[in-house]
Specification:
The chain is α/β, with parallel strands linked by helices and 148 residues long. It has a domain of 72 residues: 2-Layer Sandwich (Nucleotidyltransferase, domain 5), CATH 3.30.420.10. It is built from 4 helices and 5 strands. β2 and β3 form a beta hairpin. It is globular, with a radius of gyration of 17 Å.
Length: 148
């Protein structure tokens, strides 16, 4: 070192939520799983059974929409979301086109909701890194009644 001091200036961003989402469709039903991690690292797990039939891709969108809504209800302004659906991530990022009218509607709902954040990012994760949300989504399909 030449003796000169080095300073690092860092401006902290808004407190950021992390949300892992997954959808599940099988012969028993339709569900979504969410794992929300608050900026303070509190973990919230959610299994939601969908009250309507959906394709697997629509269930993935429903999981994303539920995650966004939950973070907004808790006052979050920054969120980093993770999904193992390449289609979902590609469409939201504009890398893939939503051709089907129902998928276009889901995509436009996501775009409307994400504009309410100061920071929003959606990343693809391998299925092996999303097993918690996947288990919660599968659990939602296994219960005929309402989940607690």
């Amino acid at each position: 070192m030449d003796g000169k001091s080095v300073r690092v200036i860092s401006t902290p961003g808004p407190p950021c939520w992390k949300v892992y989402v997954d959808g599940a469709v099988n012969q028993r039903g339709f569900g979504v799983g969410l794992v929300l991690i608050s900026p303070e690292e509190a973990i919230i797990e959610k299994s939601l059974r969908l009250g309507f039939s959906a394709t697997n891709n629509e269930a993935e969108y429903e999981a994303l929409l539920q995650g966004i809504a939950m973070v907004q209800k808790m006052g979050g302004k920054a969120v980093e979301m993770f999904s193992n659906s390449r289609l979902l991530v590609g469409q939201v990022k504009g890398e893939l086109e939503a051709r089907d009218a129902r998928m276009q509607e889901h995509l436009s709902r996501v775009k409307r909701l994400q504009s309410g954040f100061d920071f929003f990012n959606l990343s693809h994760v391998p299925r092996s890194k999303n097993t918690h949300a996947d288990s919660l989504a599968t659990f939602a399909t296994s219960s005929a009644g309402d989940l607690p």
